[in-house]
């Protein structure tokens, strides 16, 4: 299994899509964070700083799209046939792809978090911002990176299940920007189990008064979502002709 994951990682990091989405995630996060630091005269509360730095969780949106593109891309380009010739066990093949996307997404998340911290933290300190403790800062950045990895895994499972890149990306965007807020507004207590709510819980962007799930529970719920999609994708792949 380790070799399969390594092979999928090699395919992942040698594609322009991986590096393009990684750079897009970095540019988006830095634009939002640094622009806010430049505009705001002061950050009087630790929560303000923590919420700003939790913007690194936006990386998860891009890695979710990355996972979808990777999961469905093999069917679009016809390379899935070669993959299954090398690895006839379709459960192992899908699992390796999902795990590789998780590792790749986490790597992007760590990179974006590290560069954001390197640029934003000294600037915030120079402006005498009310800085959270080092433990909280690590929690925000590490949680955002973990979220990026899990988001990529979920996207890979969805892409492999649907096999259509455009349809999968549209479904992801509709889920996050339409379904999630609608459920939160109509069903009490559902917000914390939506993709958006889980992302906020993992990134540490929620304040103490919110009903976000604890970090560990949010990770388990998201991992369950990703595992379920990956299992459905494996079953669907095993039953279909390639």
Pick out its properties.
single chain, mainly alpha, 242 residues, 0% strand, 10 helices
Structure write-up:
The mean pLDDT is about 85. Helix content is about 80%, strand content about 0%. α2 packs antiparallel against α4. The two termini are about 20 Å apart. The protein has one domain. It is mainly α. It has ten helices and no strands.
Lay out the secondary structure.
Layout: H1 2-13, H2 16-39, H3 46-53, H4 59-77, H5 80-86, H6 90-126, H7 134-162, H8 165-186, H9 195-203, H10 215-239
Helix pairs in contact: 1-6, 2-4, 2-6, 4-6, 4-7, 4-8, 6-7, 6-10, 7-8, 7-10, 9-10
Quick synopsis:
It is built from 10 helices and no strands. By secondary structure, the chain is mainly α.
The helical percent reads over 70%
Number of strands: 0
Radius of gyration: 19 Å
Distance between the termini: 22 Å
Structural class estimated from helices and strands? mainly alpha
Q: How many distinct folded domains?
A: 1
Number of helices: 10
Low-confidence stretches: none
The backbone outline, from C-alpha atoms, is globular
Largest sheet: none
């Amino acid at each position: 299994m380790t070799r399969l994951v390594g092979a999928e990682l090699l395919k992942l990091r040698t594609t322009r899509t991986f590096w393009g989405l990684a750079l897009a995630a970095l540019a988006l996060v830095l634009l939002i964070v640094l622009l806010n630091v430049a505009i705001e005269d002061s950050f009087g509360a630790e929560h303000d700083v923590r919420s700003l730095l939790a913007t690194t969780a936006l990386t998860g949106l891009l890695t979710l799209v990355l996972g979808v593109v990777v999961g469905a891309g093999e069917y679009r380009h016809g390379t899935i046939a070669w993959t299954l010739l090398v690895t006839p066990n379709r459960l192992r093949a899908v699992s390796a792809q999902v795990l590789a996307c998780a590792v790749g997404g986490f790597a992007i998340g760590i990179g974006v978090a590290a560069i954001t911290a390197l640029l934003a933290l000294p600037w915030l300190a120079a402006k005498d911002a009310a800085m959270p403790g080092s433990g909280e800062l690590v929690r925000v950045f590490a949680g955002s990176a973990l979220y990026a990895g899990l988001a990529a895994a979920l996207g890979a499972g969805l892409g492999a299940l649907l096999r259509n890149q455009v349809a999968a990306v549209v479904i992801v965007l509709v889920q996050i920007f339409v379904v999630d807020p609608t459920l939160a507004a109509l069903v009490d207590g559902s917000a914390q189990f939506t993709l958006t709510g889980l992302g906020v819980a993992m990134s540490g962007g929620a304040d103490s008064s919110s009903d976000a799930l604890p970090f560990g529970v949010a990770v388990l719920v998201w991992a369950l979502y990703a595992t379920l999609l990956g299992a459905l994708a494996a079953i669907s792949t095993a039953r279909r002709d390639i």
